[in-house]
């Protein structure tokens, strides 16, 4: 696991940041464990669930998709 932290509060000791990060990781793990106890597997898909598809559009065609000032997106 990697962590990137940008602390803009001057004077906060590094140990306080380490402790808070550790508590956050422990809390996240505890929540995930509770979730896995309640729901052991994902729900089965229903027929009326939304469908998502991934499209790969060449960079030179991207402006045609978006339109002038985002007009196609706004439609």
From TrEMBL:
InterPro entries: KH_dom_type_1_sf, PNPase, PNPase/RNase_PH_dom_sf. GO terms for molecular function: 3'-5'-RNA exonuclease activity; polyribonucleotide nucleotidyltransferase activity; RNA binding. PROSITE patterns: KH_TYPE_1. It comes from the Eukaryota. Keywords: RNA-binding. One of its GO terms (biological process) is mitochondrial mRNA catabolic process. The keyword RNA-binding applies. The keyword RNA-binding applies. GO terms for cellular component: cytosol; mitochondrion. This is K Homology domain-containing protein. It comes from Caerostris darwini.
């Amino acid at each position: 696991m990697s962590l990137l932290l940008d602390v803009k509060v001057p004077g906060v000791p590094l140990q306080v940041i380490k402790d808070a990060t550790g508590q956050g990781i422990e809390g996240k793990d505890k929540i995930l464990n509770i979730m896995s106890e309640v729901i052991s597997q994902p729900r089965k898909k229903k027929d009326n669930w939304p469908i998502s598809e991934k499209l790969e559009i060449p960079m030179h065609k991207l402006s045609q998709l978006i339109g002038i000032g985002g007009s196609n997106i706004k439609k």
